Amino acid sequence: MRKSLTLLIALVSIAAGICSAQETTFYTEPGPYYPLQIGLYPSLQIIHFQESVVGARINVIGDNRSMTGLDVGIINQTDQKFRGVQVGAVNLSKGNSQGVHVGLINHTNGDMKGFQGIPLISWWNALNVVHGHCSGAQGGFFNEAESLGGIQGGLINVAYTAEGLMAGVYNYSETFEGMHAGLINIADEEMTGFQVGLYNGVKNANGLQIGIINQCQNLYGVQVGLVNIASQKDTFSTTVLVNWNF
Q1: Closest by alpha carbon to 99, among 64, 128, 125, 137?
Q2: CA–CA gap between residue 173 and residue 123 (Å, rounded)
Q3: Which of 18, 33, 94, 222 has the fewest beta carbons closer than 10 A?
Q4: Gap between the Cα atoms of 121 and 126, Å rounded
Q5: Residues 210-230: what's their mean pLDDT?
Q6: Model pTM?
Q7: Residue-by-residue DSSP string for the chain
Q8: Residue 231: which residues within 8 A CB-CB, separation 6 or more?
Q9: Closest Cα partner for 242 from 231, 230, 226?
Q10: pLDDT digits (tens, 9 = 90+) for 6-61
């Protein structure tokens, strides 16, 4: 334990010696920025948590105003912007984020451009959440975005306004343009594109539904399945195998 503490103090001392303030153009807000952060938790790290890092951050539990570069730790947090690569158990961005977030839990309060999940085995991370607009891809057990322009792949996918591909066991959106592929696909208001699954449900369907049960209120397109329901049709609102309306 004493050797580990001595090593940490030595690393902190070395890093503190080389971390002089730098002006950069990575952010529009004023500097200074620091090239290296090492710490155990926010109150025990070489750069104060209200400062920004442009370079590398290595920590157990880390927090900084903004971060650009490589971010490695158990819990990685930025209070404003993040750009780069985050690797940790939990990655938290209170503002916007851009880049790759690799971890069991990835959470962005603002907009996210890039990827959240674990590459190649991304379905097995716990959860990916973007409270703003997600431009890119999410891959995990549970994926959620306020709005999506890209791909969600996992067991449960939620994007209230979506354009792109949602592939999983359960896919939910309010308005959707693109493709739903899963066991259960639901678009609460409007679907423009394709739904492929065991059960496909939408209020207004514009496009193609393929499944065991396809259900909508207003159909402008084709349903192919064992049971097809378009409840607002004047005739043949429920059919077997094929239903259509143009």
Answers
A1: 137
A2: 19
A3: 18
A4: 11
A5: 97
A6: 0.84
A7: -HHHHHHHHHHHHHHHHH---B--SS-SS---EEEEEEEEETTEESS-TTSEEEEEEEESEEEES-EEEEEESSEEEESS-EEEEEESSEEEESS-EEEEEESSEEEESS-EEEEEE-SSSGGGS-EEEEEEEEEEEEEEEEEEEEEEEEEEEEEEEEEEEEEEEEEEEEEEEEEEEEEEEEEEEEEEEEEEEEEEEEEEEEEEEEEEEEEEEEEEEEEEEEEEEEEEEETT-SS--EEEEEEEE-
A8: 215, 216, 217, 237
A9: 226
A10: 433 343 343 334 333 333 344 455 668 899 999 898 889 999 999 999 999 999 99
Tokens 């209200």 sit on residue: 50
pLDDT of residue 125: 83
137 is written with which tokens?
A: 């891809």
AA identity, residue 175:
T
